[in-house]
Structures are given as C-alpha cells and as structure tokens.
C-alpha cells in the first residue's frame, strides 16, 4: 500500500547504526547468558536421565542437602553475569539514549511527527512542507524527530532504524535515527490505539541527497496547505489514509498541537 | 508426643484476638498505601490547574483549622472512651463514643460545606487535574471518616445490646486504631494539601 | 438528560448483535449457566450445594471452589486465545472472521481473565487447601473473611462473564491505558466492566493476602518455626505480603480511572491537567509485584514436587527462602521497566534496568537449587514432576528474554511487539500455570481422596509443552520481524507462516486441555480403585500428607509436634507417625454462613449497576453490603464444637483403615 517492500526481519537486519547497536547488544547479552542457560539445560536432562528411579545409574544420597561450595557458586555465577550485563547496560543505555543527537558530520534533519487516529503527520520546519504516512529523509544524514500525539498514546517505531518512543498528547518526546543506506522501510504505531490501529503504518524512505531534493520539490507542488482548518479535517479519525503532501504549514503548528493539551482549559 | 497446653483442641482465646489485631494492622497498612498513592497523585497534579484556580485561591485557613480541631478532639474523646472501656464503665463508654460521633459528624459536615462551596464557585472536581486530585484525596479521607461513624454506631449498638463482652471490646480496640489512623492521615492532608496551598 | 430507571441500559446497546461470533459467545455463556443450574436441580442437590459448599467456611472447601472457578475461567480465557490465534492466522490483507471491535474485546478479556480470574483464584485455591495443613493448622486465621474473598472474586468473574451477554467488554487491553480507556475515547460500558470486575475481585485478593499472612505467622503448629516451613508456605507468605502492599495500587488506579469516566474528572485525560503517565506508573506499581504474586506460589509448588518425587530433601533450603524474600522485595523496585520507551532519562532507565536484572540472581539461584535437589535423587516421573522439569527448561528461556527486555536499548526494539507477548507468556505459562497444574495433580488426592490418572496427565503435559513452543517461538520471531501486538489484521505476507504455526500451537494446547478434561472424567469414573486410603500417596515429606485424604474438617485431631524441615519425613524416620493419642479433645470449628455469598452477590449487583449507571441500585447494593457486614458482626456464635467422642470415631476409623492398608 505504501509502496515499500518491507525487510523480512528488520530487527535482525538493521539499516542504521542505532538499530545495529541495539541489535548487537541483544546478541551480546544472549551469548553472555548462555553461560547459565546451557548448564541448566544439560543438568536438567542429564539429572532426569541419570537419577531416574527406573534404572538410573546415578547414586542416591537422600540425606545430602547442602554444600557451602555449591551454594556459593550458584549465587556468585549468576551475580557475576548480572554485574557484567549491568555494566554493559549502563554504558549502552547512555550511549543509545534516543534523545542524544547523532554525530555523522552533517547537521541533522529536524522533523516533527504527530500521531493521529490512525495515521502519522510529518512536518518539515526547515522546508515548510508536511506529509502524511510518508517520512522521507536523506540517507547518511541524522534524522532528529520531535514527536507528539493529537490523540491517545501512540508509539513511534521504525524497526530497521532504531527503537521506539511513545507519542503523548501535550508532551514532546524525541528520537534520533540514522539510515546508512537508502531504502524504503516500514514504520508504525506500536501502541494499540483503537479500531484503525492495524493500518497505522507509514513508509520511511531513506533517499539519496538528490532524490530527497526531488521529494521536497514534489511536496512543494502540492495544492494543499496545512492551516488550522485543514489540520482539523486531517486530524479527524480516518483509516488507510493515503500518502499526501502539503506545500505549506502554518507557523508553529507542532507547538500549537502540544499547547492544545498542555494545561489549557478549552473554552 | 503431646505437650500439655500446646495440644489443646481449642486455640487459646487470647490468640484469636491477637490474630484479629494483626489482621487489622495489615489492613491499615494496605489502606495507608492507598492514601500514600493518593498523596503522590496529588503532589504530581498540584500544578495542573488548567488555567483554573489553585489552592491559594480556594483554601481557607480558619475553615481547615476548625476541621482539624474537631477531628483531633474526637481522637481525644475516643481515647477517653478507651479508658472507660478498660475500667469497664459502660455508661461512660457510650457517652464518649457519642461525643466522638458528634465531633466526627461535625467534621464531615464541615468538609461537605467546603466541597459544596468550591463546587458553587465553579471549582468542582471536573474543573482541573489539580481539583480532581484534591477532591479525591480529601474525599477519600472523608469517606473513611463516614465509615468510621457507621462503625461507631454499630459498636454503640453492640455495647448496648451485648455489653462489654470480649469480642465487643476487641472490636472497639480496632475501631480505635482506625479512628486514630484517620487522624494521622488528616495531619498529612493538612500539611501536604492545605498548608502549602494557603502559604502559596 | 432524562433520568432512567435502568441507567444507560437499553436493549439496543445491551445485546451483542454486532457479530455472529459475539452472539454465539453469548449463547454459549447462557447455555453453560443454564446447564449448571439445570444439572444441580435435576440431581436435586441444591440443599447439598448450599449447605456443604457455598456457605462452607472450611478452608479446603473454599479452596476447591476457587480452583473450580479457575478451571472454568481457564477454559473461557483459552477460547479467547485460540480465537485470536485463528484470527491472526487468516487476517493477511483481510478482516479475518472477527471485526476489530470484537477482536479488541477478546485480547482485553483474555488478559484480564487469565491474570485475575484464572491465575489468582487458582493460586488462592491451592494455598487455601494446602497451606493450613502444611503448617499444622486447623483452618485459616479468618474463615469468614476467606469466604468473603471467594465470593468477591466470583462476583468479579461474574461481571466479566455477563459482559459477554449484556453489553460489551473493554477494548483497552488488560492494562486499560488511558487516555484510550477514558470516557472521551471510549464512552461505552466495556471499560467499566473491566474496572468494576477487577476492583471487586482486587479487594477480595487484598483480604486473602491479609488472611494468609496472619495464618502463617500465627497459626503454625508447635515446633513449626518459620525456618522449618515448607517452601510453599514461604512463597505464599511472600506472595501474600505482595498482595497486601501491591493490590491497593490497583484499587487506586482503577478507582481514579472510574472517577474520570463517571464524574468527568481529569486524572488521566489529555486535557485539563490530566496526566496519563501517572496511570502507567500506578498501574505497574501493582503490576510488577503481581507477576511475582502469580509466580512465587508456583515456585513453592515446584519445590515441594521436586523434593517429593526426587525422594530427597530440598537442596539449599535457606538459599531458597532468602531468594524468595529477595524477589518479593525487589519486585517493588522495577516497575518502570514496563515503559522504558516513555522518554525518561538514560540514568533513570539504566537504574531500573539494572534493578530488573538483579532479580535474575535469586531466580537463577532457585533454578540451581531445584537442579541440585534432582542431583543424586531417585526421580519418579509423576506428571507433577514433568510439569516441573518442563518449567525449569522453558522458564529459563523466558528468563533470558526477560533479561534482554531489561536492557533499555534492546527494549526500545522489542517493546509492544509480539516478542514481548512471547516473553510474558513464557514466564507465566511455565512459571505460573505449569506450577498450578503440577499442584493440582500433586494435591488432588489430598482434596478428593483419590488420585488422578497419570497417563492422561502426562499426555496433557506433552501437549501443553509442545503446544507452548509451537505457539510462542514464532511470536518471538515475529517480534524480530517488527510485528506489533494486538493486531486484528496485517498486510505483511511474511508474518503469515509463523502466525499459522502459532495457531497450530494453540490447537495442540487445546488437545492438552482436552487431556485435562479426560483425565478428570476418567479418574472420577475409576475413583474406587484410585482411593488414597493412607492420605499419603507419594511418600510425602510435609505435613499435609499426615492428614486423611480428604482430611477431616479439623485436619489434625491432635496438633503435630514439628522437629525439622520436612516434618512428616522426620516423623516417619522416627517411627512416630499415625500414633494413637492418649485422648481426644473437643475442637471448635467455623459454623457455615451464607453471609459471604450474600456479600459477593451485593458486590456483583453493585458492580453491574455501576457499569450501567443504574445509581439507585448501586447505592442500594452498597448499603445492603454494609448492612450484611454489620449484621454479621453482631453474630457471636460463629463456631461449633465437635465433641471429642465424634473425633475419636472419625480417627479410629482412619486408624483401622491405615492398619488394613498396612496389612495388605
């Protein structure tokens, strides 16, 4: 529908450094934990076989129920693994903080994303354009997203590029992503939000610099402009909203969407 | 294998009341968590006035002081009821319970008047997150006091009908715990809700 | 707005006419209800059911009713599960056979039922039947409150069930996140059914927790020091402490959501100063400890089963006790890991991530302690042992994926995906349900006096465990493929094959459930030759195997004297078991009362009326409930005296039975 052929398993085959680092952390942790897992599997099957009442070869010591050495071992080994994982966790959580700006030698592209029932609006303040259900950006240039919701809580996620973050009305969250090759990826809302939730996905297009310029030019040709009235029409619940473009956006629209909820009392 | 006393088929009566006391303490602790979370919610929402009035605009020191006085005095009179219970003086016990009831009723009446006044001002619980949290925290305490009033009435009836039997006395002890607990919660409300609001 | 006698209840809103499947569900529910009523009437057993069961304050009877409720709700919850699996197997580029508003109710009711009305009653029932016997007590501390807890839980379950017939259930998931669950986005009755069902049953759970704590701390037999208690008592104590301290958080969370919905307040709304993040925090302050409320009792069951069927004393008893208490304590420090993706600072996320991983240490210790108990044991493969072995292997995998999710950057990828769904099912099916089923097959003879068929038990186990792997390993994979949870349909063709495998897995689990049903029926039909005449069919080690099967109402005619861990095993070694005491004494036992049923009934009417805004009825039910409680407090004759001579008769019969058994 969005013209994307999604990657089969985007988490396992990421297309950017953030998702790659997150995936590698996952793999590293699995390998470290195998130190505990493999003994558990081996011991379960071995003991069940060796000490079976019906002809097992193992010794039977009904009154043996404690060994200080084994007790120490079964506390210390898991504890040691957790200490190692905790160190890894601490540094990686700070390094992969979604709020942290990525450094790729170029200025990041700022995009404002708004979750609506049941679609995504992307505002490009640098270019004064906006798009619905399509997020285009240059590959190799960091993408810095400001995210909010104009409805219930959503969660913004492009699996191939990096982890998700909630979109909440009256609040702004941030996400920094980078695609290191061009391609079309699937993005979606991960937080169930009602009947239209299954269709609430969008195309995330990482384009070459020229292709991105072309894309911006195409959006600029759109007859539609996003002002207060057309915004209200767009924000009304709709399913399977087609990809569409706006050649102009009312100033500070994103901030006004947040301000609508942030502690104001509607008249 | 039997040891005299330990094997008796019937639990010693004292144990039964000890168990009930422990059970009631556990209930009070879980109730304390309800209040703790309502306090936390209030503190989270105290600034969320949504352009409406805040605590400084709404709270009256003299009114709150009056409520506090009624409730603290009722704790004192309940203490006197407990003394009467210990000395087995039924008339005095009923008398002090009645005074406690009257003071508690006065407290609830004052709280209702305050709520009524706020709602008349357009500062009802639906006005803002802050007011929702305020009405809920204070109202939950008020509901507890009202439940305590019903509890007092039931116990007065039991004292009148059954006399100072052991089960009745143990229930009165638990009612006392409940009543003093509500006092402590009110002191929390006074210091975390009204005082900062007024000093704003 | 005109005042209406029946609130917002109208035939048009109430009847489930929105889909044929929903109508079918309603019909099945009504027929099931009528079948139960009809059977009891046809057998003429109403008096028996009322006097012996519904009004009973005997902890064993109450426990059995809890387990029956749990098994019925397990069926209902599983029907939801297999409907979801079937829907997702078909719904590629199509609507499948369920419309979204129906699918969304199903995933909401599945979670709600399995957590609140299957797992909670199952563990509460097993605790009720067994813990008093294990500590050498004659009943729980507060038998009447026990009955009230049961009927409040049943009232909550009744509200979920009736939502299938009158109105709709919530579509907001079992977690009910606002603002979606608020009146603005969800004005119907569904969320209200969810709120009042868990509110009513949650109060029952808090009361159960209080009851079990006092029972364990104050009702132990002479010599039963805390550090001599069977592990199941320890894990029950830990779980009960969590119930008392965590359930108030659920009460507050759902009450505030109800205030938002009914009185237009602004705790969690988008507008007017509401704060949805506060809901999510409050919910998980209850929700994370709840995971351990469900799992810890199962850990206790596994400990008993391992020791009994390895015929060996539990390895590292003290380690297991400390690990249990450590888990209970730590469970309050990790709630934020349910929402690492909310945008908290890296420091906060890292702190809660590390705290979460720390829980893996005591959990790992437990796994190794069970393994070391198997080491140099003599293992009998009773079905309960199979559930335990299956648990050790499978739960360890779930533990690993749990540690992965505790790494915030990895969680950013896996949160809200089917990987998460696979993870928590991987914890709760082996970690809790397998344990309950192990306990069910282990203790069934204690409750009913005859054993369950082992062959069908083993078949059930193999179906469940293979079905589990078939159903949930594909969901892990789908998480890597970026599939969100709770999708009614999808347009990614690559997702379909794993979803079809998952649906087959659900079908295999269905076969496992069929085995459980057949096992029960077959065992009842052949009960005469499966009689447990000794009260100790597995050469048990703990005190519940000292009583008769089923136990006399008082459990122990003479309270046992405990000298060691594995008290019964120690008595057997000493040759001091089944001794005839010098004399018997009268025993006071709780007298039956219908007040518990009445209070539960009023709670149900209150809940139903609150859902439909029938405020006069809600107020009347609440007043009636208070009046019933107050009236009960006037009743001082709450116990009856079983005379020493009656007890002597019962005990002599048992001793003769034991002697006959030994002569064989």
Can you characterise this structure?
The complex is a heterotrimer of chains A (267), B (200) and C (664). Chain A is of the alpha+beta class and 267 residues long. Chain A has 5 helices and 13 strands. In chain A, the strands form 3 sheets. A 6-stranded mixed β-sheet of chain A has the order 8-5-1-2-3-12. The two termini of chain A are 40 Å apart. Chain B has 200 residues and is an all-alpha fold. Chain B has a single domain, classed as Cytochrome c oxidase, subunit III, four-helix bundle (Four Helix Bundle (Hemerythrin (Met), subunit A)), CATH 1.20.120.80. Chain B is built from 6 helices and no strands. The longest helix of chain B is centred in the last third of the chain and has 34 residues, at 129-162. The N and C termini of chain B lie far apart (71 Å). Residues 1-10 of chain B have low confidence and may be disordered. Chain C has a domain at 1-293: Up-down Bundle (Cytochrome C Oxidase, Chain A), CATH 1.20.210. Chain C is 67% helix and 1% strand. Chain C has a two-stranded antiparallel ribbon with strand order 1-2. In chain C, helix 6 packs parallel to helix 18 (595-611). The relative contact order of chain C is 0.11. The A-B interface holds A 263-265 and B 48-52, 127-128. Chain B: Pfam families: COX3 (PF00510). Chain B: The chain crosses the membrane at residues 24-45, 65-86, 93-110, 130-156, 177-199.
Key descriptive features of the protein:
heterotrimer, A: 267 residues, alpha+beta, Helix Hairpins, Immunoglobulin-like, six-stranded mixed sheet, five-stranded mixed sheet, 5 helices, 13 strands, 25% strand, elongated, C: 664 residues, mainly alpha, Cytochrome C Oxidase, Chain A, two-stranded antiparallel sheet, 20 helices, globular
Mean pLDDT of chain C: 96
Tell the overall outline of chain B: elongated
For the record, give the distance between the C-alpha atoms at the N and C termini of chain B, rounded to a whole number. 71 Å
Q: How much helix is in the residues of chain B?
A: over 70%
Structural class of chain B: mainly alpha
CATH fold field value of the domain at 1-293 in chain C: Cytochrome C Oxidase, Chain A
Overall mean pLDDT score of chain B?
93
Give unreliable regions of chain B as ranges: 1-10
Approximate shape of chain C: globular
What is the level 1 CATH name of chain B? Mainly Alpha
Query: Tell me about the biggest sheet of chain C?
Result: 2 strands, antiparallel
**CATH secondary-structure class of the domain at 1-293 in chain C:** Mainly Alpha
Question: Helical proportion of chain C?
Answer: 55-70%
Structural class of chain C: mainly alpha
Any low-confidence stretches of chain C, pLDDT <50, length ≥5? Answer: none
- Taken as a percent bin, the fraction of beta residues of chain C is under 5%
CATH topology of chain B, by name, is Four Helix Bundle (Hemerythrin (Met), subunit A)
Q: Greatest interface and its residue counts?
A: A-C, 95 and 91 residues
